[in-house]
Design brief:
The chain is an alpha/beta fold and 461 residues long. It contains 18 helices and 16 strands. Strands 4-5-15-10-11-14 form a 6-stranded mixed beta sheet, with helices on both faces. α2 packs across α9. The longest helix has 19 residues.
Length: 461
Amino acid sequence: MKFISTRGEAPPVGFVDACLSGLAPDGGLYVPERWPTIAPARPDEPYVSVASRVISAFAEEELPESTVQGLCERAYANFAHQSVAPLVQWGPNRFIMELHHGPTLAFKDVAMQLIAQLFDEVLTARGQRMSVTCATSGDTGGAAAAAFAGASQVDLFILHPFERVSPVQRLFMTTTGASNVHNIAIDDDFDVCQAIVKSLFADRDFVKSSNLSGVNSINWARIAAQAVYYATAQAAMGADRPLRFIVPSGNMGDALAGYVAARCGLMAGFEAVCAVNENDTLNVLFGEGRMLRRPARATPSPAMDISVPSNFERLAFEVSGRDAEMLRRVYEQFAQSGDVELPDRIKGPLGCSGLSAASVSNAQTLAEMRQVLGETGWLICPHTAVGTHAARNLNSDGETVDIVLATAHAAKFPETVEEATGRNCPLPERVAGLTGRTEVFEKLSSEASVVRDFIEKNRRR
C-alpha cells in the first residue's frame, strides 16, 4: 500500500513513512492510493481485534499482523472501559458514543495512544529519533503528552493558544513531568498555532535536520485509528441498520474517519453531520460551497474554535476525483485571499459524500447541557452538547439510529459545566491528582522562526 499527497507533487510513500512524516513535502495530506476492502466488525469482536484488522489493511506487508496486534493491545490496555468506545442510549433511536475513557478523558486518546506505540516500535527498530509537533485547540495536546511522555525516541513540542483552552485541558499538557515533552503557549488562536506547524513543515531543510513529524489529524494514523469506532458502532447496532453520526467538529478529522470507514466497507452506508459551534466554517463549506477564513471566536467548546478545518482537503480530493492539480490551485488561492468559491467539480459531488454540517450557538450549547442533565441526569461536555443539540434538530425516519460522538468528559470543562448547570463535575478518580501537579510551559510569540529556534534548542540529538 502506497500513500499519495492531495497536492500531487510528492512521491508516494509507504504506510509507516506517511505516518512518521505527518504532512507531505508538498504541503498536502497523505491518503491511500486505493481504498482497501475490510470485512465489517462482528458484534462479538473485541475492539483490539477490529483495530488490528483496520490498521493492518493500511499497513499491509510493512508491519506484520502480530506486530500490529501488539501495538493495539498496548494502546488500549489502560482505557477505563473494555469496549473503548461504548454506546449508551440517550433516547428513542438516539445513542451517545462515549469516547472519553482514555488517559486524558478525550477522543484524541483513541488514536494518540496507538500512534505513540507505532512511533516507538518503528523508531526503535530504525535507531532514529524524531521531533514531533502538534498544534492543539485543547485535547490533542494532552493526549499527545500522555502518549509520548518518557518516549526515548521522541521529543514532543505542543503548541496551544494561550488562555484559549480550559484549565484542565492545559493541565493534561503541562504536568507530565517528562523531560521530552515541551509545551509552548502561543499568544494567538489555534489557527495561528496550526499555521506555524505547517510553516515548519514547509521548511524542508529544518524538517530534515530535526527529523520533524506531526501528530495532528493531518497524520493519517489518526484517521485510520478513529475509523475503528465507526465500525464497532455499526456492529453493535446491527450490520444492516442505517446509522447517522453527529460529530462535534473542528479540524474535521473525526468526521472524515467515518467517511474512510465507509469507503473501506466497514459501514452499511454513511451519513454524518459535522456539528460546529459559532466558528461555522464547515457550515459555510457544505451550505454555500465557500472556503472562508475568519478569526476564530472564543466559545464554550474551545476544542472546536477552528476556522480552517485541515481535513476538508482530504474530502475535497476524493470528491473531485482525486484532481490534485485543481486542489492545489484552490488551496493556493485560499492561502492568498482566505475566501474561495469551490469549483463545481468539488461543490457538486460534496452533497453526495454523506457529510453535511450544522452550527450551534453559544447560548444553545449551554441550554443543551441543562436539558440533557434534566432528561438523563448526565453532565456532558460543551462539545458533546453541540452534537446533541444538532441531533435534536434533525429529521427522523423512525428507522435510522442517531449516534452522537461524546468527544470529551464533562470534568475537563468544570467552569462551563457549572455555568450551564450549576453543578460541580469533579475529575474521575483515575486522574484526580492532576490538579496538584506542577505546570511547565513556555510562552512564545506567534512567529514561526521563534518556535523553530525553540525546537532546535530543546530537541535531543
